[in-house]
Write a structure and sequence with these properties.
The complex is a heterodimer. Chain A is α/β, with parallel strands linked by helices. Chain A is about 20% helix and about 30% strand. A seven-stranded mixed beta sheet of chain A has the order 11-9-8-7-12-13-16, with helices on both faces. Chain A has a six-stranded antiparallel beta sheet with strand order 4-3-6-1-2-5. By secondary structure, chain B is α+β, with helices and mostly antiparallel strands. Chain B has a single domain (about 5-140), classed as Jelly Rolls. Chain B is about 30% helix and about 30% strand. The longest helix of chain B is centred in the last third of the chain and has 26 residues, at about 120-145. Chain B starts with 6 loop residues before the first helix and ends in an 8-residue tail after the last helix. The chains are: A alpha/beta, B alpha+beta. The interface of A and B includes residues 187 and 206 of A. β10 of chain A pairs antiparallel with β5 of chain B, so a sheet runs across the interface.
Chain lengths: ~270, ~160
């Protein structure tokens, strides 16, 4: 990265509607032949000219030629991003932050527990595990969403679920009885998930309350705090640890995170002052 | 051919794991095997809760009928879980509908039989109550988290 504060222009190559409030942008660089390299879990600052920047996790494969971001329209910048069309140009700064522990996971079972839009930052992990399947042990994906219409990447979930070497379980907060799957909070899927707790790396991403209770449930299964990783989100502005907007106790989420090992932040989670 | 007793497999079910052998023997006297086809209604709201179930295989849905919406699934339960505690609490009536989502293999336990044994043997009663209370706690916690609607968009 040359100057981390200087956005690179990227053209929108494709806009994909995911759910009623979530969409995916596929971006191609204007000034270089190939999109930036990144590690699963890292994020970019997406800049809508004249409106502002927003921190968005990268949700495509590390091998993609395009830079892929899945975004939920919740604020001024993300709503402006939602209004953009193919061919429009945005600024991109990044990639920033720490990544998921792909190296530590080699030779171990990999358990992903995620909820809502939290699946997006973990999709690069899923792609990597599936592309290098022999390097990992059992692969379990537990995903919670609000209703059937809120399921992110529904087609891919179906595809992954159909693979013999993937344990994919989905649960919804609420459903009518034409839904054949699970109903309940995502933590309820953990007790029966098939993995070896002593030789597993768990990666969690979703609302903070969900992550706290998920970590507790994984510990009940016999996992140690050092085997659990989670991705936090705060108001990222500069993305390089200068401005302090995303300070979380002694950490800056943009620089020391967003991916943290659980034992390093467990005492901070749930603290009202932070 | 010798008839196989339920005791050893009952003792392996997570709900009874660690229960003393003599207690398992008492409980087994109230237990039978049960199977349900996918879609089969296991119990209906308001019916006497004469039995409860310990799932060994398959999945059930706890449902409630909501006018103008139809059957709404409140929660699904799978292998290793307990279905029903109304057998323990007056007026001993099912509070929700229970339907098999897929083929279900379970232990069916006679609630009145087990209540009688618990009354006669308070130590067994306390042991079972602690286990049911653990299930209450977990379900209440999960329900509270569901009620938080954490995936909702609040901005």
């Amino acid at each position: 990265m040359a100057d981390p504060m200087l956005p690179e222009p990227y053209r929108i190559a494709r806009v994909r509607r995911e759910t009623h409030d979530t969409f995916t942008l596929e971006l191609l660089p204007i000034n270089s032949a190939r999109a930036m390299s990144f590690a699963p879990g890292q994020f970019n600052m997406l800049y809508v000219f004249g409106t502002g920047e927003s921190a968005i996790s990268i949700s495509g494969a590390t091998t993609d030629e395009r830079l892929v971001h899945t975004i939920r329209a919740v604020g001024t910048v993300t709503r402006a991003l939602q209004r953009l069309k193919r061919g429009d140009v945005i600024g991109v700064r990044g990639p920033f932050g720490t990544s998921w522990p792909m190296q530590e996971a080699i030779g171990r079972d990999v358990v992903i527990v995620t909820g809502g839009i939290g699946l997006a930052p973990l999709r690069p992990v899923i792609y990597q595990v599936l592309a290098q399947r022999a390097q990992y042990g059992k692969f379990v994906l537990l995903y919670g969403a609000r209703t059937p219409r809120d399921l992110l990447y529904a087609r891919e979930l179906e595809k992954w679920r159909g693979q013999f070497d993937c344990g994919v379980e989905i649960t919804l907060d609420t459903a009518d009885n034409d839904w054949r799957g699970n109903v309940g909070f995502v933590t309820a899927l953990i007790p029966s998930a098939q993995f070896n707790p002593t030789n597993t790396v768990a990666m969690i991403c979703g609302p903070e309350v969900m992550m706290r209770f998920t970590a507790q449930e994984l510990r009940k299964r016999g996992m140690r705090d050092e085997q659990i990783y989670l991705s936090l989100e705060r108001n990222m502005k500069c993305a390089v640890g200068f401005c302090g907007h995303c300070q979380y106790g002694p950490h800056f989420i943009c620089k020391d995170g967003p991916v943290f090992r659980y034992d390093r932040i467990a005492s901070l989670l749930g603290k009202q002052e932070l | 051919m010798t008839a196989q007793t339920l005791e050893p497999i009952l003792a392996e079910h997570p709900f009874f794991q660690g229960l003393a052998a003599e207690d398992i023997q008492l409980v087994a006297g109230c237990a039978t095997n049960a199977v349900f086809k996918a879609g089969e209604v296991i119990s209906r709201e308001g019916e006497p809760a004469n039995q409860f179930y310990l799932l060994r295989e398959g999945k059930v849905a706890l449902e409630i009928y909501v006018p103008e919406r139809g059957q709404v699934v409140l929660q699904t339960l799978g292998a290793g879980e307990l279905v029903g505690w109304s057998w323990l609490i007056p007026p001993y009536q099912w509070r929700f509908d229970v339907r098999a989502v897929e083929f279900v293999h379970a232990f069916a336990l006679d609630g009145a039989c087990l209540r009688g044994k618990c009354e006669a043997n308070p130590r067994l009663g306390y042991e079972l109550l602690k286990r049911v209370a653990q299930v209450f706690t977990e379900r209440l916690m999960a329900t509270r988290l569901q009620l938080l609607d954490v995936y909702g968009n609040r901005s």
